[in-house]
Amino acid sequence: QVQLVQSGAEVKKPGASVKVSCKASGYTFTSYYMHWVRQAPGQGLEWMGIIIPSGGSTTYAQEFQGRVTMTSDTSTSTVYMELSSLRSEDTAVYYCAREASHFDYWGQGTLVTVSS
Amino acid sequence: DIQMTQSPSSLSASVGDRVTITCRASQGIRNYLAWYQQKPGKVPNLLIYAASTLQSGVPSRFSGSGSGTDFTLTISSLQPEDVATYYCQKYNSVPRTFGQGTRLEIK
After folding, report:
1. What confidence tens digit (pLDDT) does each residue in A32-54 have?
2. Which CA distances in Å does B21 have to A20, A73, B70?
3. I need a surface site. Which of A17, A21, A45, B99 has the fewest CB within 10 A?
4. Which residues are registered as beta bridge partners of B103?
């Protein structure tokens, strides 16, 4: 069965970077695009960007341009999302989600807390 | 970028009621619209895609309709387990924008 398993919770100081992983299993990794979505406490879903695992091509939401980097490792079927220059407003749960046009499978979420 | 606007932002209804949530796109998106349900503390779950196609395993009391700019999610008979926040999302192009969400409670 399809599974997306994300790395564990992180606590970071303002100005630092965080790298979240999402390991896929149960399907052909290179056949589906992957997205990252975040959700601040008590807030809605915010789309961050997309990566095409086969070639590593990415498109980022304008709000994150220059601060986010998404990468993929086909040898381990894992995608990564790195967010830099963290600020308190980046405290959120970060999800990876597989695209089958819509988002049919989601990771369990990774809580990133930014606090001094 | 295309904006997605849901209404209402919150809703309280009784068990057995018919509930309707609306999603409007600022430009036409044909039928490239999905609906997700997110229960408190849980991961979003796909309910409907292509505006009206029910995802496998989703109860038949959920239905979707619409095309172009105006879309609707309907719950034909509200159940206690339907308490959640519901999001629409466009997927015709990037950015894959979500609506702001509709919080559904039981009266």
Report:
1. 999 999 999 999 999 999 999 99
2. 34, 40, 11
3. A17
4. B10, B85
Note the pLDDT of residue A52. Answer: 96
Residues 6+ apart with CB under 8 A from B57: none
DSSP class of residue B99 equals P
Closest CB from B1, B44, B55 relative to A45: B44
- pLDDT score at A101: 86
Tell me how far apart the terminal alpha carbons of chain B are, to the nearest angstrom: 37
DSSP sequence for B31-52:
T-EEEEEE-TTS--EEEEETTT
Q: Is A41 on the interface with B (CB under 8 A)?
A: no
Q: Is B96 on the interface with A (CB under 8 A)?
A: yes
Q: How do residues B29-68 score in pLDDT, each as one tens digit?
A: 999 999 999 999 999 999 999 999 999 999 999 999 999 9
